[in-house]
């Protein structure tokens, strides 16, 4: 766990910050606005507790009632003024909280209290988004300049002034002055300063985007034993941060810096190494043994919940040196799910639906977990929840609710399974009015997204002219796509069309290959075409053999019958991804 000790001028007594919880925060915030202002804003935290005597505010190592803190502030206690302001800055629902906070910050600032000046500047600047307010920006710049006059060695404020000059926020835009202030930051030689200089030169950040400076300053910070910089540099060499910069993958350097950061105390590096080995990305080989060993060393916190999920899939599947350990996997799935990981919540739904927890399937529990995962906007969980409403599994059947949820999964996340099942709903009139044209459109949407079942259904509609004109050549196109995806129905349908030359010249050799592949999966329907004589010339719409229509009808019935068991295999998202 990494401890960042903030500048004393920020008046922070104890701040705990881990790469596991803060990496995304750093990357987003430090590449969008005035990095140091926001850094001071976020690190300056107030612990509020609710007791019988009301809200308590921390002040000089103690917690005192808010009204007492306000009384001290009114009498001119600068520390009290500052902490009362911090209290109001956290109260979004308190009327006039922002104005009250600004009032106390201004009082403390005008009395020369530097932490208040810095926090006031960050507060004022935050109020300029999303539109600029030149008066607020000018006041923010003024307070930072005054803070620098009182504490000229504060590199965080130097960085802020450089950003203000670069963008013309509250000061006349002056690139030369921005560079001069940046040079002053460099001269401090502080590792954390180099880290923030690296972020400041990243794409869409607070200074000029210069990839070579990003690398240079990141290395300087890492060489200065800044463990966040070491981990970020390791990720940089794996192509996992500052994406878009022309840095060639170097897994050896990546591993060196990540391991150095880990041994320096940043356990978030173990999470990152585990994921790189798990997915085999960033130039790393896919190695589940190494992934397991690193993921085992992540800290036990809510910020590592996804690492627990990945570790659970490894224990569920086993590795070359370890047999599957289902009990340990289930415990990890549950812990990760309880900490809020959407993948793990989905996995818990799978476990309960498949009867892998307890003596038999528990659809009600499955619905609970799928719903939690869906609330986290996990698309496949939304589809599963919609299907359970459609089927009435673990919840009262409600086709209209199923339609709503499936439509949301498609509209918001383009979830391919949901596209297919929406097509089925509209084709069969389940919870909605039958609408062949809408069904065909949904099958087309799913087919274009790569779902082989949607490809077959679309091909059958194109063949029969359902929901639109009959288009035999397109029917063949999508049937072949489904066969190439390895779907048994695709083998059977594409083989049949090629066997009889429907919408395409006959291709006896390819048709027999696909029909046999379909038959080998247990789909005996394929044998009917195999036993018939192949066509010698393309069939016209008028001369399509009755057997082709019969195969089309039976395939459609088989696909529609899947509504009785529409769910993916239980092992989906339990095994290693």
What would you note in describing this structure?
This protein is mostly helical. The protein contains 29 helices and 3 strands.
Set out the fold topology.
Blueprint: H1 19-29, H2 35-43, E1 49-51, E2 54-59, E3 62-65, H3 66-74, H4 78-89, H5 97-110, H6 114-126, H7 134-150, H8 155-167, H9 175-188, H10 191-200, H11 211-223, H12 227-237, H13 251-263, H14 268-279, H15 288-295, H16 305-317, H17 326-338, H18 342-353, H19 363-375, H20 379-391, H21 399-413, H22 416-428, H23 436-448, H24 452-464, H25 472-484, H26 488-500, H27 508-520, H28 526-530, H29 546-561
Antiparallel strand pairs: 1-2, 2-3
Helix pairs in contact: 2-6, 3-4, 4-5, 5-6, 6-7, 7-8, 8-9, 8-10, 10-11, 11-12, 12-13, 13-14, 14-15, 15-16, 16-17, 17-18, 18-19, 19-20, 20-21, 21-22, 22-23, 23-24, 24-25, 24-29, 25-26, 26-27, 26-29
The helix-and-strand class reads: mainly alpha
What is the residue-averaged pLDDT?
87
Which residues sit in consecutive blocks of at least 5 with pLDDT less than 50?
A: 1-53
Number of DSSP-assigned strands: 3
Silhouette: elongated
Output the number of helix runs: 29
Going across the major beta sheet, what is the strand order?
A: 1-2-3
Beta-strand percentage?
under 5%
Q: How many strands, which pairing sense, and closed or not: the largest β-sheet?
A: 3 strands, antiparallel
Distance between the termini: 28 Å
The proportion of residues forming helix, as a percent range, comes to 55-70%
Rg on CA atoms, Å: 31 Å
């Amino acid at each position: 766990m990494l401890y960042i000790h903030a500048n004393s001028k920020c008046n922070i007594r104890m701040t705990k910050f881990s790469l596991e919880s803060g990496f995304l925060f750093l990357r987003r915030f430090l590449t969008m606005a005035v990095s140091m202002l926001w850094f001071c804003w976020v690190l300056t935290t107030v612990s509020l507790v609710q007791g019988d005597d009301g809200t308590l505010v921390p002040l000089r190592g103690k917690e005192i009632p808010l009204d007492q803190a306000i009384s001290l502030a009114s009498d001119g206690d600068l520390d009290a003024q500052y902490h009362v302001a911090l209290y109001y800055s956290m109260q979004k629902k308190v009327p006039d909280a922002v104005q009250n906070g600004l009032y106390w910050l201004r009082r403390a600032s005008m009395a020369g209290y530097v932490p208040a000046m810095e926090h006031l500047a960050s507060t004022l600047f935050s109020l300029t988004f999303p539109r600029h307010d030149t008066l607020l920006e000018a006041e923010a710049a003024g307070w930072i300049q005054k803070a620098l006059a009182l504490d000229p060695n504060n590199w965080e404020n130097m960085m802020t002034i450089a950003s203000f000059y670069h963008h013309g926020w509250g000061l006349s835009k002056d690139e030369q002055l921005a560079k001069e202030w940046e040079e002053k930051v460099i001269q401090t030689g502080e590792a954390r300063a180099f880290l923030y200089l690296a972020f400041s030169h990243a794409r869409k950040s607070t200074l000029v985007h210069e990839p070579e400076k990003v690398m240079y300053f990141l290395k300087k910070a890492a060489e200065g034993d800044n463990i966040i910089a070491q981990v970020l540099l390791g990720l940089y060499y794996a192509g996992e941060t500052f994406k878009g910069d022309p840095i060639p993958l170097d897994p050896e350097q990546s591993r060196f810096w990540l391991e150095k950061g880990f041994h320096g105390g940043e356990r978030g590096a173990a999470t990152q190494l585990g994921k790189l080995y798990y997915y085999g990305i960033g130039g790393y080989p896919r190695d589940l043994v190494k992934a397991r060993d690193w993921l085992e060393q992540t800290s036990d916190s809510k910020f590592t919940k996804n690492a627990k999920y990945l570790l659970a899939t490894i224990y569920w599947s086993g590795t070359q040196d370890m047999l599957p350990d289902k009990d340990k996997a289930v415990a990890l799935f549950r812990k990760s799910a309880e900490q809020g990981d959407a993948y793990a919540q989905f996995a818990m739904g799978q476990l309960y639906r498949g009867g892998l927890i307890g003596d038999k399937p528990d659809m009600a529990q499955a619905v609970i977990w799928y719903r939690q995962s869906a609330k986290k906007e996990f698309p496949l969980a939304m589809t599963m929840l919609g299907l359970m409403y459609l089927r009435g599994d673990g919840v009262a059947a409600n086709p209209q609710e199923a339609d709503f949820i499936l439509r949301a999964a498609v509209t918001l996340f383009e979830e391919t399974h949901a596209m297919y099942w929406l097509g089925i709903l509209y084709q069969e009139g389940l919870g909605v009015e039958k609408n062949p044209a809408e069904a065909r459109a949904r099958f087309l949407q799913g087919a274009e997204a790569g779902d082989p079942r949607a490809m077959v259904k679309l091909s059958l509609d194109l063949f029969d002219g359902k929901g639109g004109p009959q288009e035999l050549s397109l029917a063949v196109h999508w049937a072949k796509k489904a066969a190439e995806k390895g779907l048994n129905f695709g083998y059977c349908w594409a083989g049949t069309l090629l066997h009889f030359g429907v919408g395409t010249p006959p291709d006896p050799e390819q048709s027999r290959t696909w029909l046999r592949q379909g038959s080998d999966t247990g789909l005996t329907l394929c044998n009917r075409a195999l036993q018939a004589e192949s066509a010698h010339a393309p069939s016209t719409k008028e001369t399509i053999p009755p057997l082709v229509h019969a195969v089309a009808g039976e395939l459609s019935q088989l696909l529609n019958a899947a509504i009785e068991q529409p769910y993916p295999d239980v092992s989906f998202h339990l095994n290693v991804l």
